[in-house]
Structure formats: structure tokens, C-alpha cells
Design brief:
Blueprint lengths: L1 E6 L4 E7 L1 E5 L2 E4 H24 L3 H26 L9 H5 L8 H18 L4 H26 L18 E4 L10 E3 L2 H19 L8 H18 L7 E2 L2 E2 H25 L3 H5 L24 H16 L16
Antiparallel strand pairs: 1-2, 1-5, 3-4, 5-6, 7-8
């Protein structure tokens, strides 16, 4: 259950890693699951921090997170099962749900998780675009962490690296159950490492530009575009891709995410600049009713100012209807009987 690894180009010699982190009640707990959970926790913490800026609470994050994680895992497993029906034999229901044996497809998790997140946000009357902005960067961080679960399993690597290649210094020597080379070490593209580093850079980039966002949903679109662009190229190096016909599924989905993300960001920026985005979306989300005399203010970065304008209008009308003491007419004491 161990994997032998080396990174000679980085000055790291051979060492072994065990897939099992520890045992609980006699059952092995694998590093893969532990690391995935650490990624989920990191995503939760980031979403809670961002929720304060976007105007919803920690309780909202926890409520939405329960459904998002649950359906995300189910979606990731279902996506994997459906796309491997030709190469895997699923004899019964236990084989289908056996995530502890590996087999989760990230795009299935993203699709199902996003769907659950949006539906839960709508049910709670929270703008789902704000929620997506708050959650998106954290998901990228979780993916960066989660890829190290693949490292512990000795999987998700690429083709053998040829000497003289631009990426040759990053080559990974590997002996695992997935290399099928016996005790002979071969050197592969560490695609898990490429994707982890790409996601970390993307996470930092989104955090740096977050305060400058122009419209709700922009940060989520940046995440989709960034991740899709990197995954498109990295997937081309992998040896374990899922296919539909001659196409690698993850490459196709990655390209679609990149093109759609860039296109929608351009459209959103143009509509925001022209003041037409709210009309184009034509959506009004129920907001908390402000206390008497208190106006709800949001930033100009994609926020709505309807509540402020309404409060100012009401205040002006009130001042107009009530004359000052100097202007008030004197009481008429004339007896008209």
C-alpha cells in the first residue's frame, strides 16, 4: 500500500509514502480521504470570510455547504461511473457508491455542487451570484489541496517525460500500483503537481482582484475560466483521462469553461459599464428589511442601491409634507358661531 517517489530535477531523492494515514476501529483511513476533507474545510473557512463582504452569514454558509458537499460528492461519483461504464464492471450498488476505492471526477462534483448551491441560495432568498463569488475561490483552493491525495495514491500522473523537455526538471520518478512497471522507476509528468500549483496561483490572483470586482458573478466566472484553461492543457499530459469517442472529456469541458467564462465576463463588464446589467438580469432578490430610519448600503462593486434610493426618497417626502414651526400657520381663535 506504499508508493515510491522521487523528484531528481528538484534535488529530492527516493522516498516512500503510505496510502493509509491511520486506522479507526480496525478500518484503514486513507490519506486521500483525509486530504480531500482538509480541502473542504479550507473552502468552508474561505467562504465564511467572504460571506461578510457579500452580505450573508456564517449560518447561511453552513446551510448551503451541507447540500453543496453532499451533492458534490454524489455528482463526482456519478460522473465517474457514467463515463467508465465501458471500462469498469459495476456488479451491484455497492460497487457504484464505493468512493473509498477511488473514482471521483471533479467536473461532476462542480456541476452537482454548483446546482445545489444555487438552488439553496434561491430558497434562502440570497443572490446566488454573490454566493458563487464567495465560494468559487475556496473551491479552487480545495482542488489545489485535494490533488495531493492523488500524490499519496501514486495516481493522476502523466506520460513519461522525455529528456530535454521544457518540463524535464519537474519530472517525477514513480513506482505504484498504477505504473505497472514492477520495481523499475520511470519518470512521469507530475500532473497532480502542475494542477495544484496552477490552482494556487489562480486562488491568489482572484483574492488580489476580489475588491475590484465590477459585478456579481465576476469572481466565479474568473474561477471557471482560470481552471478550465489550465485543465485543458494539463489533461493533455495525463494517461488516465476519461474519453467520449476520441475526445478527452475533461479537455472538452475545460475548454467550454474557459470560453464561456471569458465571454460572460466581457458581456458582464460591458453591460455594467452601460448600466444595463440589472435590467438584463431582471432579478430582484429579497433582502433583509432595514430597521426604521436605517438605510442598507452596498458597495458599487456589483451591489444594488435600490434600498438607499428608496430611503432617501421617503426621507425627502417626509420633510416636504411636514412644515417647519416658522412656516406653520397660526391657530385661528375666531369664534364662527
Amino acid at each position: 500500500m506504499s508508493t515510491t517517489v522521487s523528484f531528481p530535477g528538484l534535488g529530492i531523492g527516493e522516498f516512500s509514502v503510505d496510502r493509509v494515514a491511520f486506522e479507526l476501529f480496525g478500518k484503514p483511513i486513507y490519506w486521500y480521504g483525509v486530504i480531500i476533507m482538509l480541502g473542504i474545510v479550507a473552502a468552508f473557512i474561505h467562504a465564511i470570510i467572504r460571506s461578510k463582504r457579500e452580505g450573508f452569514t456564517t449560518d447561511d454558509v453552513l446551510d448551503m455547504g451541507i447540500f453543496t458537499v453532499l451533492f458534490g460528492v454524489l455528482g463526482a461519483r456519478l460522473y465517474y461511473v457514467v463515463t467508465t461504464l465501458d471500462t469498469h464492471e459495476y456488479k451491484n450498488f455497492i460497487d457504484v457508491i464505493a468512493v473509498w476505492e477511488g473514482g471521483l471526477a471533479i467536473y461532476g462534483g462542480i456541476i452537482a455542487g454548483c446546482t445545489a448551491l444555487v438552488l439553496t441560495a434561491v430558497y434562502k432568498k440570497i443572490n446566488p451570484l454573490k454566493v458563487m463569488d464567495a465560494v468559487g475561490p475556496g473551491v479552487m483552493l480545495a482542488q489545489a489541496i485535494g490533488r495531493w491525495g492523488n500524490f499519496m495514491n501514486g495516481e493522476a500522473f502523466g506520460y513519461e517525460v522525455t529528456e530535454g523537455s521544457l518540463l524535464y526538471p519537474f519530472r517525477m520518478g514513480l513506482i505504484s500500483d498504477y505504473t505497472h512497471t514492477g520495481s523499475t522507476m520511470h519518470y512521469y509528468h507530475p500532473t497532480f503537481l502542475y494542477e495544484s500549483l496552477w490552482n494556487i496561483v489562480g486562488f491568489v490572483f482572484i483574492c488580489l482582484i476580489y475588491r475590484k470586482k465590477k459585478f456579481n458573478g465576476q469572481m466565479a466566472l474568473t474561477y471557471f475560466a482560470w481552471y478550465g484553461f489550465g485543465r485543458f492543457f494539463i489533461e493533455g499530459l495525463r494517461t488516465d483521462s476519461l474519453y467520449v469517442g476520441p475526445f478527452r472529456i475533461s479537455q472538452v469541458v475545460g475548454l467550454v469553461c474557459f470560453v464561456a467564462g471569458i465571454t460572460l465576463m466581457v458581456v458582464g463588464s460591458v453591460l455594467t459599464r452601460n448600466g444595463k446589467l440589472d435590467k438584463w438580469l431582471n432579478v430582484r432578490w429579497a433582502e433583509a428589511v432595514p430597521a426604521e430610519g436605517e438605510a442598507v448600503t452596498e458597495t458599487a462593486e456589483g451591489g444594488d442601491t435600490a434600498t438607499d434610493e428608496a430611503a432617501e426618497t421617503a426621507e425627502t417626502a417626509e420633510e416636504t409634507e411636514q412644515p417647519s414651526e416658522e412656516e406653520a400657520p397660526a391657530p385661528d381663535n375666531t369664534d364662527t358661531e
